[in-house]
Amino acid sequence: MAKFYKSVAWLEPYMESAKHLVDVGRVSTVKGFKVALHKNSLVYGTCSPVNGNKRSKYYNINLLTHETVSSSLMQTYFEQTGFSSLTAAQILQCFAHELAHVKHWEHTPEHGILEARIWRAFAVEAKRRGAKDMWIKVSPYLRQTEKE
Fold first, then answer.
1. Which of 24, 62, 95, 143 is the most exposed place for a label (fewest CB within 10 A)?
2. pTM, whole model, 2 decimals?
3. Rounded to whole angstroms, how far apart are CA atoms 7 and 113?
């Protein structure tokens, strides 16, 4: 079972809800990160092979949990004043995307369809846990999976 760092430990039941779609046993660690103040994040998450070995069967997933914020409308590096947490839905959407990489590495239509299915499993789990509303970003892939 994957090691979850404290900041993203709440994601563990969501990963369990997707085990029928992805081999979650191949996920080694899941951890959250935030970028340094006065820096801009270029990604919301990464999925990388353990030790950088492309032949590895195991993956590390890193998820952005906080963004930098600015006190002005025109944000520059020097005006950033602090951090803002991403919403649970944003983190779950990114987690679904990164989990899809475990099965389909490239950004292909199959990857997008799998991501939509994982996202749907997460939404069902969130509803089971009492979430009032879980916004779902409708994608062409999600509509395609409903036809199957």
1. 143
2. 0.77
3. 28
- The rounded distance, in Å, linking the Cα atoms of 138 and 126 is 17
SS3 34: strand
Tell me the domain boundaries of the chain.
3-147
Determine contact, residues 143/47, Cβ cutoff 8 Å.
no
CA 103, 104, 110, 112 torsion-angle sign:
positive
Instruction: Give the model confidence (pLDDT) of 5-36 as tens digits.
Output: 888 898 999 999 999 999 998 999 999 887 76
Residue 59 has φ and ψ, to the nearest 5°, of -130, 150
> Got the DSSP string for 59-125?
EEEEEEEEEEEESSSS--GGGEEEEEEPPHHHHHHHHHHHHHHHH--S--HHHHHHHHHHHHHHHHH
Tokens read off for 25: 């046993």
Taking the C-alpha atoms of residue 109 and residue 122, their distance in angstroms, rounded to an integer, is 20
Backbone angles phi, psi at 143, to 5 degrees: -65, -35
Count Cα atoms within 13 angstroms, Cβ side, for 48.
Answer: 9
